[in-house]
Each structure stands twice: as C-alpha cells, then as structure tokens.
## 1
Amino acid sequence: MPDRYRYDCRLFSGYRPCPYDCECARCEHYAPMGPRVLIVRVHQLGNIVKSTPIVHAIRKRYPDPWIAWMAGPAAIPLLETNPFVDEVIEWSWEAAEAVKQRRFDLVLSLEANVAEAALAQQIEADELLGYGLDETGALCPAGPASEDYFALSVSDRARFEENTRSMAELLFDLVGVDYEGEEYVLETTGADRAHAREVLEAAGVRPGQRTVALATGGNTARFETKDWPAERFLELARILHERTDARLLLVGGPAERDLNTRLAEELGEIAANTGCEHEIREFCALLGACDVVVSADAFPLHAAVGMRTPVVGLFGPTPPAEVPVFGRGRKIVTRMTCGPCYIRTREACEHDGACMPGISAEEVAEAVVEILRQSDGPRVS
C-alpha cells in the first residue's frame, strides 16, 4: 500500500516504531519534515564550528526545515547536541552512497575538497550552493550564486585584501538571507559541564577564583605557522601570575600532551596542566567554564567563541576578518605587512614564519588583564 507509511514524518525511521507506536497512515502525531537541507561540511573542527551559524540562515530561508549535516567522525559529538540539526550523518563512502539515493530542497556544499564536492553534485536537489566539480576534475562554483563564496578560495586579493566579512556573514550571503549577528551554535550536556567542574577543582581553582586558559596548540601538523611559540606562553604565564590572581590553566588536545607537560614542569605552581585527553564536548565545556581563553586561530579559539567565553585570539598567516568574537575579547594581529598569507610551513615562508613569534607576551597579557578587569566575576563559582 503506497500510502500506508508517511516516510517524510520527522518521527519515522523505518527500523523501529516511533515513540507513539501508531499506525502511520492514521497517526495524529504526523510531523512532516518540511524543506530538506543537507550541509556537507566534513573536515577541520574549527571550520565546522565557524559554519554553525548557517543553521540560522536556513531557518530564515525556510519554514520549519529538516536540516541534515554530513561531517567527519571527530565532529559528530559537536553536531549531535545542536538543537537545530535534525540528522547527523557520519562521513563515509557507505554514507555517501546512501545519501545519493535521497532528494533535498537544498544542498550546501561547503567543503573545498574534490570528494565532497563530487558527492554534493550527484545528490538530487532543487538547488546546490557552494562547491561543485568541473568535468576537468577541478573545484568550481556550484552555480552563479556561489561565485563570490568560491572566489575566496582562489583569489588572495579577494580573501586577504578585499573581504571584511566573517565566515558567518559569508554563509548567510551564500544562502541568500540577511545576517543579523547570529552566533555559533555549540551545546554541551550536563555531564560535560560536570566534567569541566571536576577538572577545575583538580587544577586547584578556588571557589570564586577566575581562570585563564592558555590553549597552546595552533595546528602544528597541518599549519605550523599558526602556532604561538612555547616561550611566549611561558612569558605570558609569568606576567599574568604577577598581575592577576587568576588561576592559569594549560589546555589542549592529544597533539599538545608533551608540550603542556613540559610547560607545566617549567611553570610549577604558576599554571596547572588540565590534561589533553578530554572528549571533544568535555573540552568545549572546560573552555566554557573559563573566564578568558588565549588561543591562536585554531579549534580552541572557535570553541571558546561558541561557548560565549571571552577570548584573546592571535592571528598571523590567517585572515582575522573571518573569525568573529561577537564583542567578547580581542583579536591581536601580527604587525608584519605580508600577512595574512596562508603559508602553512616555516620552510615555505621567506621570513621563517616570524609573524606569530612577533606577537609579544606583553601585548597579549595586557589584553587578558583588560578583559578580566571588565568582567563582573568568575563564570563558574
């Protein structure tokens, strides 16, 4: 019977009864999906967080949409708690084959990679925006409406000299709706926040004491020129210890384990090593519990912005205009006139990646102290 099941109901899965266990065709709880939108944004956690305002753009464009997001395994926990994402699809070739059997009203192809662009172009949709794939195998705009967005990938002049818009604004332009300051969407659970409180307690944070997180990682394996040197973090920690009563916390992921261990040994009681093995949402909750986060242009910076934590963001080879802080904190930009350049290795840079080391600990400390001075009190007591 072709009308026995309502496959477009938000509650229908096809492999188990819905919560109401009703006969589908006669169910009074039928909730149609509405316009179906697929976001293909797979790689780089920071880029995924920066792209989350697009869910607001979609909801402005469509009434009650069904939003599906395809992402890599590491990003799945960040999207599972997003209240505006109805379906999270973990990227794999099997998932790619399955999604090609579906139809969407809109596919947003945001990943500048050949495989993801090819997939997006094969999905049946009323409209495709973002990246497509030319018959030569090169990335190309998905259509005329995507040309400005695509140009930022292929024109240094457009991206580094002309563009003054954040990634959020660029995505709203792509979808074709007005941007009104919509922020990142990053949610943690009660268990994540409880873990963060335990970490702070173990780090010796006293009740009512403010905290400054020093996110020591840039993206060394992929983009080493974004790193702020370890010696600058040492200088910063010592200055902040002298000028504030905040508890200083070393934070990072598995790639920063050895670095943070070494920094903690050199700093002694000045700073606490919070560990580098937290689950991704637990890490976000930890940043959310801090009063200030200092970070290069990497995932900790974007996660802290998503958690509404004031930040001091450090920028050298990457464009600061694309990263909003929504009025909470400061962006400190290299004074070298050759940046931004997007050169990833010191070997490829004629200045040996001098832009990030050129940002002084004193300048960063002044920004942190000013943020602490303006705050009303600790975010977690």
## 2
Amino acid sequence: MNLYLYIGKKIGGKSGIATASVALSIFVILIAICVSEGFKREIGMKAAGFSGEIVLTVPGQELTTYTYNLNTNLSFLDDIRSIKEVKSVEGVTYSVGMAKTDDQVSGVLFKGVGENYALDFFTPFLKEGRLPRFCDSPDKPSNEILISERMALQMGYTCGDAMIAYFVGDGNIKVRKFTVTGIYDIRLENIDEVLVVCDIRQTCRLNGWTPEEVSCIEIGLGGDGTAASASVRKRVMSAIDRIIMESDCEEDSPTIPQLIDEIYPNLFDWLELLNMNVLIILILMIAVAGFNMISGLLIILFRNMSMIGLMKALGMRTSDVCRIFLYKAGIIVLRGLLIGDLAALSVFWLQDRSHIMKLDPANYFVDHVPVHLGAEMFIILNIASFTVMMLIMTIPCRFISGVSPDRTIKAA
C-alpha cells in the first residue's frame, strides 16, 4: 500500500461537516444540471418537432407565409439530403382561416403536410383520438385534421366533430368542412394554440398553389435542445449555406435557411438564461464546499501539529507531509461525492419515473420538472469537482511549511 495513503487514512480528526458540504454541493450541482438539460431537451424536442431544426424559407418572409411560395424543385435539395446528419426534408404549406361554431369564432393557422411527414411526433402528446391519414385517397385531399387541446376546449370540439372553416382570398370566401380525428396537447408557448395539421393538398388548393409550391421546407436532424444537438445544427447550417451559395442554377427560387433558434428566439433565450443560472449555482456550490473543506483540513492540521513536527524531525520533506494531508482531503472529497451522487441519482430516478414535481405549463411549457443527465456529463462533473476541490486543498497545505519540528515536539 502507498505509505502516504496509509498514513492519511490513519490521521484522526472530525471531517463530517466537510464531507456533508461536499455531498450537498455535488447534489445541488447535479440537480441543477439535470433540470437544465431536461428543459433544453424537452422544449427543444417540441420546437424541432413542430418546425424542423433548420427551415428553408422565402427571403424576408415568415415561415408561415401563405402569400409568397417557395418552389420545391430546387437543384440543391439532393445535396442537402446527402448531408449525413439530415434525417428528413419535407415541404409544408400554411393557410390562415377562421373556425366558427354556433357561439365561438377563432382564427386558425392550417399547416398542410404530406403523407411522408413525421406525424408520429404527435403520438406521445395525443390526448384523444388518432393521427389523421392523408394518403387514403391519392386523388382526393383528406378532410381529417389534428387540433390542439386548447383549441378543442375553446371551441368545444371533440374527436369526430366537424370543423367549418372560412378562408378569405382575392375577394372570395372559401368554406371547407374538416373532421377532427385527433387532439394533442404540447403547450409550447402560443405556437400550438391555433395550429391545425391538415392535408397539404388542402392548403395548396386554398392558396391557389401547385403541388410543387410550399411555404417553407423543414429539415429534420433528429436532435433536441441539448448542447450536442445545437452544435450539430450549426454545423449542418454552415453546410447548407455553402451548398446554396455554390448553387448556380438560375431557375432556383430565392431561398435562405433559418435555425430553429432564430425561429423561436423567446424559447431559446429562456433556455440560455437557464445556463447562466446553472453556472452561478455551480460557482457558489464549489465555493461553499471549498471553504468548508479548507476549514476542515485546517482543523485536522491543528489537531495533528505534533505529528507533523515529528515527521519533519524524522527527515520527511514538507512536500511529502503535504501529500499525506492531501490524501486525507481526497478521501473526504471522494466520500462526499459518493454520498451526493447517490442522493442526486435517487431524486433523478424518482422524478423521471413518477413526475412527482409538477409545474404550471402556462409558464414553463411543461407540466412537470423535466430531468436529463447523460453518463458523459455525470462523469465530467465528478472529475471536474474532485479536481477543483483538490486544487483548493493546496491552500491550507501551505501552512505545513511553517511548522517548526522543535517547537511542536516540545509543545507535545
């Protein structure tokens, strides 16, 4: 066994407060990271499912435009599809209408999607009914639609009900009758409140567009709102920018790509604010744990002054004596990290399984506190915390160099 480690284990002194401080600090840090990553993943995944992670739009227009169209016969679309991270490239068409019942009127944004669109994104959020089918009749557009729970409550719709919608354009009023087949509940700000998912052939006809004309093209990467997926988004965005710039086909419609971060700035700015809060918590917890560890180690040093003097008198170098007490500090830190990790993982598992901590979805976009922590992040946090703590422990160890062997042995 390492001699210094053996002596460090044998050194007496109370270290309960220091251990508890380290355990509490790593517990708070892990919980803060878990919650922050959980929010990023939950909200980012919802936003990505609604609009794709990168969207090709008409320059100067919102992605929900129903006035200016984007032609899908772009010469560079195949090059975009060939990018390794790209999972889907789908055109969607928007059209604005008004839904009316006997006693309610509401503005509605119809989002037309094709039969290959990833509607299964809505499956976990279905509250009632089923997803609409848009490919049953190849010649006739489907009348089935998917609406939000908030719209259903406001207008009094249930699955199987008919929605009468009115569309105004070119001085004419068009009337369409749809059938509500599914009701979903995502509660993502105001994005889903008035959104109705329908057959793209319906919205193309309402806008007077051909099947090749769409409002925008959604590019899915299969990611979420975590830091890793944000890095992938930016990398793919740079590749798409380069592909568009290098395209020399004059027949291509003017097109610009937009990141989901730019489409929903309020959501992602709020997530960035969470990052700042987590950083502040991390710094405070490390400072508190470090202060208590310094205090604890100083107490152990004072209680073992005679032993320090004796070891120096026997010829042990100051650096070797410091190593002994650093081993002692390391044992305390590791014990605290283990306790904190077990406590944090227990809370993480309980919340992930039972959603015991609830939230108001009107303010937080989710109805429970989301948690997520990857194994890589867990390991990095522990290694970083241990390293910082041990660096802090070199401060009280400097006290050893001033210990005089003759004075401490005489005092003993």
## 3
Amino acid sequence: MVIYWLVIFFVFLMLFSGICGYFKTKSVDDFVIGNRNVGPWLSAFAYGTTYFSAVLFIGYAGKIGYNFGLKSLWIAIGNAVLGSFLAWKVLAKKTREMTAKLNARTMPEFLSARYNCRAYKYLSAFIIFIFLVPYSASVYMGLSYFFESVFKIPYLYALLLMAGLTTVYLLLGGYNAVALADFIQGLIMIGGVFLMVYFLLSNQEINGFINLTNKLRDINPSYTEIWGGKGFSSIMFLMFLTSLGTWGMPQMVQKFYAIKDVNSIKPATYISSAFALIIAVGAYLTGSMTPVFFKGIPIDPVLMKPNPDLLIPQMLSSYVPEWVTALIFLLVLSASMSTLSSLVLVSSSAVTVDFLVDLGVLKSDKKQVFTLRFLSLVFICLSVYIALKKPTIILSLMAISWGAVSGAFLAPYIYGLFSKKANINGALTGTITGLLITVVFSLRYNFDPAKLPAISVMSMLIPMIIVPVVSSFTKKE
C-alpha cells in the first residue's frame, strides 16, 4: 500500500514541477535552455540525474557486477572524476561563454555557428534524433523490467505509465520544469541509494562489506581483484564509455548552456561530482552483490532466455523490506524520468530549432514552442515502440547510442571550443568517422555486448586524431 501513496505523491511533485515551468515558458529559449538562468544547485542536479538512469541501476550495475564483482567500482570512480568533475572543470565555462556569444541553444547550432556550415546543423540534428531514440528506449526497458519484477505490473502498462507521466510534465514546462523536477528526483535518488546499499549489506546472506568480499572471493577470486585480472580491460572500456561519453552527449553539455553565469560553475562542479560519486558507487556496489544472491542469470518469461537486466529487480524484490523497495522504486523512477526528459528535450529541439526554424517554416515563438511539444510527444512514442520490441539487452542499446552520438560530436565539440585551427573539413570528417565506426563495427560483430563498449570508445577517440590532422591539411574556410 505504501508504494501507491508514494507514487501518487511523486506524480503530484512532477505535475507541480510542470506547472511551475509552464508559467516560465514563453519562448524557445525558455523551453530549451531555461533562458540561461538556471542556478548552480539545479544545474548540478540536472547534470547528475540526466547522467544516471534505469540503464545504470537495472542494466549496467546488474550485468557488470555479476560478471566482474568489485572491479566494477572503477566505473563509478571514472564517472565521478572524468564524467563529472573534469567535464565541468574543462568544458563548462568555455561552453557557457561561447554558446552565449554565438547564440547557440543546441549542439547542432553550436557546431553550425562555430564551423560556419549550415549543412552541418542538419546532419547533427539528424544524428541526434535518430541515435538518441535507442538510448531512450533502453531507459524505458530498464524501468519497465523493474515494474514487472517488483510490482508485478505488466511490462506494457509500466511502459505507458512512465511515458505518459514524462510527457505531461515535460510538455508543460520544458527545461524549467525539467530542472526543478531533476532537483527533486536527485534528492530521492540520494536517499534511495543509501537505503538500498544499507539493507542489502545488512541482509543475512551478506552481513556487512567484509563478509561480502569474503563471499565473492569464495565464489570467484577474480571478483575481489581490484587491479588487473580477468575482465579488467573490459571494465576500463566501460569506464571510458560511460565517463568520456558525457563530454560529447548533447543532453549533458546542454546543462552548461543553461547555467546562470560563470560564478555558478564552481559550486555546481563540486555538487555534481559528489552526486555522481554517491549514485555510481551505490549502484555498482549493489551490482557486485548479485553473485551472492544468484547462481545463474534469471530467465526472462517472455523471451524464455537468460536476461541480466532482471538481476537487480529480482534481488530487490526478494531481499529488502517492502517499504524500502518502494523507496528504491522511486529512486529508479526518478533516475529514469530525469534522463528521459532531457533526451526528449534535446531530440525535439534538434528537429525544431536546428531544422524547421532554420528553414523558415516556423517563424513565431508560439508555433516553435508548440512544435517542440509535439515533437517531444513523437520522440516518446518512437522510444516506447522500440522498447516494446525488446530488440536487445539494455547494455547494448546504451553502448550503441553513446558510441554513435558522442563519437560524432566529442572531437568537433572540444576542438570547436579550444582550437582556432579546427575547420569544417576536419570537424565533418571527425563526425562521419565516429558515426561510421559505431555503426559499421556494431553490425560487423552483430551487436555483441562484449565488443560494443570497445567499439564505442574507439568511435570517440579516433576522431580526436582525425579532426586536427584533416584540419591541418585542408584550407580553413
């Protein structure tokens, strides 16, 4: 019964956020970047809650923890240091200054203005809209598995419920609603993570962290090897994928566009990094406990084959008190909805702002905001459709999406900020290279989950060499 009252209260808070955002949303700038007037706390929590979703708690933490044990904590450290702290330190100030100077509200607008190429805007908008759909679908899948395993709510109904709630508060208030909702969701995530770790470690099957390490060592000595050993290279690829990837993901760097001023960046950096450390360590530590509770990967009753995405949901439904499960449910719900709203916002703005407005199809702010809302709904529907098909495991969907999008934008974005020598030839070559590496090799290896992280990391790193080399050998335009 507790869960229903908590969900009702949560829905009320999300609707409240949407209504508050609605009265502040009169223009495209308001809807897309909060009119560049978002303070450090809201910006930091918006970054952190967008970073972590059901993909982490249901897909990544369970599968990686089951395969590698405590070594998975390296990913958490990478997320906090490289994915959050260094991202804010290196990118935030320069991004805020340059996007304001160029009047860029989206990643495609920035790349188009920086490299003086209108066609680049259209290509970037296309990449964002196409390749963020699988990521959004993976979030829906993770959340729906949780509903299905813990609360016995059918996958379809869970999917439609979450899509509907996200639609309402996002369409009402745009970025202002998202930022306020993210702050509320972030507080829920912090509380939920502490409770989840505490009750699982206190369970008689584990009985403390020291016993956990002993049990894991008995099951498989490699589970407690912190450095080197079996699977360490896979962990490093996953760490770089989920940490460096944030530097080129439009929904992440958008938070730097929207922050109020340069003075807000320093406190936001530390708040965001602390948030990332708490959430990531809690998630991967939980994932590392799965070998103690499971002798094999659970069977998906629909697909009739082992599905690692069911590890965490089934563990929580069986080994923690019901009221704690209810709070953890809100944790996963909060993490997922914050990510979903940011993905939808970035994708809808890519088509509206970077394509339709640029072509002169939409001239008034009223029409532009209406179109943003309509395309947000379209994006949500596409994501739900893919999630219903259950095309592959969550980890694979996320790796493909991050590899394609961050591989396409990371190098052009960074060189666009810090190098005057980088030109459109180098940037465009880098974008195409990163995209092709992900697509071609994913197909070549039949979307093998074991190879996708390495493929995605290569799609990010190789363009970092391509962009300056091609720029140096071609005439600056």
